[in-house]
């Protein structure tokens, strides 16, 4: 497991006892900012549209793996597992969802009980660490993470472990928020409570791309997808109890070039 720290203890609380997925800022048992299509102005976003944004972010990540039917995939930080189930069912692949939190995995098993039975072994969940994977060398065809790596203190270790467990030609993909290369760091902590506390770590995206290259990956690609995330997310936040909180500063950080949302891919 990752070395313990005050920040890690806070993350464990957020996803365990606190149950982040129960907050109105999220929905449908997903926990991510979403990948949004165009929205008509001057109207409220529906709960169904919010859930679809969650699901579409998973599709963007899973599609970038270029999976073939029957491939074995590993999801890092699966949380409540509904995205894991979506990938297993929509892409005809075998997916193991891994999470650090035993409490989250208990919830995942309950929430996805019908899917686990229906998919007949194609969907499973296991506890583990993203920096010390229990999978054998060259044992999976693809590894992905959806809005997880901002909670990990040692991304270079993640890159090395993912490279190790991937088969030659296997692909890695992740979607989360990073700093654009060259952006100032200090103002983000002043604006975002989770960054100030250390629960979220905002690194330059080029730094993680370099970690992947150093681990041995080829075809490392970084794509900004912020235009599909931040403004639409802020509109949703404005409909929740977080509408007058620090959560509105995500958009402010994006508009000031301090953070962005990225899809990062690589091939072993």
TrEMBL record:
<protein>
    <submittedName>
        <fullName>Methyltransferase domain-containing protein</fullName>
    </submittedName>
</protein>
<dbReference type="GO" id="GO:0008757">
    <property type="term" value="F:S-adenosylmethionine-dependent methyltransferase activity"/>
</dbReference>
<dbReference type="InterPro" id="IPR029063">
    <property type="entry name" value="SAM-dependent_MTases_sf"/>
</dbReference>
<feature type="domain" description="Methyltransferase type 11">
    <location>
        <begin position="74"/>
        <end position="173"/>
    </location>
</feature>
<keyword id="KW-0830">Ubiquinone</keyword>
<dbReference type="GO" id="GO:0032259">
    <property type="term" value="P:methylation"/>
</dbReference>
<dbReference type="Pfam" id="PF08241">
    <property type="entry name" value="Methyltransf_11"/>
</dbReference>
<keyword id="KW-0808">Transferase</keyword>
<dbReference type="InterPro" id="IPR013216">
    <property type="entry name" value="Methyltransf_11"/>
</dbReference>
<dbReference type="InterPro" id="IPR050447">
    <property type="entry name" value="Erg6_SMT_methyltransf"/>
</dbReference>
<keyword id="KW-0489">Methyltransferase</keyword>
């Amino acid at each position: 497991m990752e070395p313990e720290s005050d920040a890690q203890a806070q993350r464990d609380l957020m996803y365990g006892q606190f149950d982040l997925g129960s907050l109105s800022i999220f929905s449908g048992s997903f926990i991510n900012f979403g990948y949004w299509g165009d929205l008509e102005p001057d109207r409220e976003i529906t709960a169904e549209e919010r859930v679809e944004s969650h699901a579409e972010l998973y599709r963007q990540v899973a599609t970038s793996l270029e999976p073939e039917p029957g491939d074995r995939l590993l999801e890092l930080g699966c949380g409540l597992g509904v995205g894991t189930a979506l990938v297993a069912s929509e892409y005809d692949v075998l997916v193991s969802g891994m999470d650090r939190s035993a409490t989250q995995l208990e919830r995942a098993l309950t929430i996805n009980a019908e899917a686990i039975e229906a998919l007949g072994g194609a969907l499973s969940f296991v506890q583990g660490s993203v920096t010390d994977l229990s999978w054998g060398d060259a044992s999976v065809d693809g590894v992905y993470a959806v809005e997880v790596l901002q909670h990990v203190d040692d991304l270079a270790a993640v890159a090395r472990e993912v490279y190790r467990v991937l088969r030659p030609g296997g692909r890695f993909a992740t979607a989360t928020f990073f700093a654009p290369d060259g952006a100032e760091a200090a103002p983000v902590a002043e604006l975002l409570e989770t960054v100030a506390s250390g629960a979220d770590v905002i690194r330059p995206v080029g730094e993680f791309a370099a970690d992947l290259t150093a681990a041995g990956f080829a075809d490392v690609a970084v794509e900004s997808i912020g235009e599909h995330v931040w403004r639409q997310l802020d509109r949703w936040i404005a409909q929740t109890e977080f509408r007058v909180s620090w959560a509105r500063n995500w958009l402010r950080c994006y508009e000031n070039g301090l953070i962005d949302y990225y899809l990062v891919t690589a091939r072993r």
